[in-house]
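Try this one yourself first.
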């Protein structure tokens, strides 16, 4: 592998169209609000057979891991799609946020991908069954890269003369006014773009969102409750007035691609993408007719009909078993998560969120009455909620805020009487706090290095922060809890290629 120092203010290797690309990507990033990449850090670039991987000094081992998974993704996806890019893909590793994400921009300048070096929040589809966050990202984003890089016929000729003339995503410019002339697959409905990437992520890894029970539940609920989305609705063209379980074009799109592969054969799914890359048809419907002999609306109708029958059978099977009787006690949010009883059992605190709801921690009486906002703050995405102080007068929780050039999670304390918030940590990257029964200690999870968490503790007066269990091998701790006597802490621990397991320690309060 070749190593070269990259100037601290530039994190991509410039090519003959690099200046054009950098200008375009800066506008793109500003438009969609991605977190700032630290500009003053020392950046290095590692070269592999198919990638140029740019990363901060000190992250060499992570870069090597990313190189391995990126090359493995290249092997699998290029073989499946029978396509290889002419130039190496630029890959930037970023550790500037505690929000798990990644993106690819193959339609602009040259092929480029960004990986956020943090695992997804616990109890979400981004953590479900995955053996490695970097591998999941590599498969998903490289699918986008090769999918949109694929070009044949006259689009390939135009690209060879003028370079890539793609349209930046997330803009308000209609596609008909700025078509992706040199990357026709970039103009596919987002249902197919993201659905195809999720499908490939699922069949090429141990995890993948099509294997996730949360997604299956969301889809089944739509069908059982007769709230099935149309093609336009699932593509994100319209805003949603109800809870959707996330971005529907990922979910509906992935299940639709899976249906095509199961019903017509995987090669037919790939053929749709190849045929569209030729630019011979202005509309995706014509491509479906050419490849499958049926229009897109007809294939979609088949997909919906099959799903209706499958989910009806699942619902009947579930209803045939004894069911726990439930009573709904909130109607305030599209998302109402992480409920926790107060120590005396008289109140419940929970997190509220959603597209059309103000993010907040709300408190209500145990019977659901006198429901009110305690503090407006977004804690939903951490999936860890809040914890009561033993006297029931305070809540401790984690939320994100800026620390220098990074957006990270820290611990905050809210006093229910004075209604004042106090910050407990600065740049600790902490989540999942829980109070000890004696009120003296707060145990939490912290991101202590790249792709790594540890189980931590601190005194309740925000002093003496210490590690209880130092993580290794990409361990991901979550949901620490005390035993009633306060002597033992239990937590969920996940590590590379493993399912969540329970873990205990008895040294938290020594």
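Now uncover the answer:
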């Amino acid at each position: 592998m070749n190593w070269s120092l990259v100037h601290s203010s530039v994190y991509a290797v410039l090519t003959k169209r690099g200046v054009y690309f950098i200008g375009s990507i800066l506008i793109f990033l500003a438009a969609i609000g991605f977190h700032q990449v630290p500009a003053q850090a020392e950046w290095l670039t590692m070269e592999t057979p198919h990638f140029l991987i740019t990363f901060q000094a000190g992250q060499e081992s992570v870069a090597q891991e990313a190189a391995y998974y990126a090359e493995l993704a290249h092997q699998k996806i290029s073989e499946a799609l029978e396509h290889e890019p002419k130039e190496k893909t630029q890959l930037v590793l970023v550790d500037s946020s505690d929000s798990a994400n990644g993106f690819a921009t193959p339609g602009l300048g040259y092929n480029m991908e960004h990986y956020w070096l943090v695992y997804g929040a616990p109890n979400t589809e981004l953590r479900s069954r995955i053996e490695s966050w970097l591998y999941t990202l590599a498969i998903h984003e490289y699918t986008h890269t090769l999918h949109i890089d694929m070009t044949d016929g006259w689009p390939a000729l135009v690209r060879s003369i003028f370079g890539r003339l793609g349209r930046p995503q997330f803009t308000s410019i209609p596609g008909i006014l700025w078509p992706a002339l040199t990357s026709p697959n970039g103009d596919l409905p987002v249902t197919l773009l993201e659905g195809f990437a999720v499908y490939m992520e699922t069949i090429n890894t141990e995890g993948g969102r099509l294997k996730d029970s949360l997604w299956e539940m969301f889809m089944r609920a739509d069908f059982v409750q007769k709230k099935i989305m149309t093609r336009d609705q699932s593509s994100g063209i319209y805003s949603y007035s109800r809870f959707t379980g996330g971005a529907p074009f990922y979910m509906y799109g992935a299940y639709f691609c899976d249906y095509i592969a199961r019903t017509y054969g995987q090669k037919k799914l790939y053929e749709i993408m190849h045929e569209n890359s030729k630019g011979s048809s202005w509309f995706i419907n014509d491509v479906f007719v050419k490849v499958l002999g049926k229009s897109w609306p007809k294939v979609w109708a088949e997909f919906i009909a099959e799903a209706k029958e499958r989910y009806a059978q699942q619902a009947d099977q579930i209803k045939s078993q004894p069911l726990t009787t439930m009573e709904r006690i909130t109607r305030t949010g599209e998302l109402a998560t992480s409920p926790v009883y107060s120590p005396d059992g008289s109140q419940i605190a929970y997190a509220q969120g959603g597209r059309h709801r103000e993010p907040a921690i709300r408190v209500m009486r145990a019977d659901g009455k006198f429901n009110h906002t305690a503090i407006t703050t977004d804690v939903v995405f951490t999936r860890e909620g809040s914890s009561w102080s033993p006297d029931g007068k305070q809540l401790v929780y984690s939320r994100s805020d800026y620390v220098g050039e990074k957006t990270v999670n820290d611990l905050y304390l809210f006093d229910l009487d004075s209604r004042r918030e106090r910050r407990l940590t600065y740049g600790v990257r902490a989540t999942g706090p829980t109070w000890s029964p004696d009120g003296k200690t707060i145990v939490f999870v912290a991101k202590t290095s790249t792709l790594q968490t540890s189980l931590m503790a601190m005194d309740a007066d925000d002093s003496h922060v210490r590690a209880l269990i130092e993580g290794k091998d990409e361990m991901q701790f979550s949901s620490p809890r005390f035993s009633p006597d306060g002597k033992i802490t239990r937590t969920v621990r996940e590590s590379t290629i493993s399912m969540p397991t329970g873990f205990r320690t008895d040294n938290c309060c020594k």
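Discussion: The domain at 1-187 is CATH 3.30.2010.30 (Zincin-like). The chain is about 30% helix and 25% strand.
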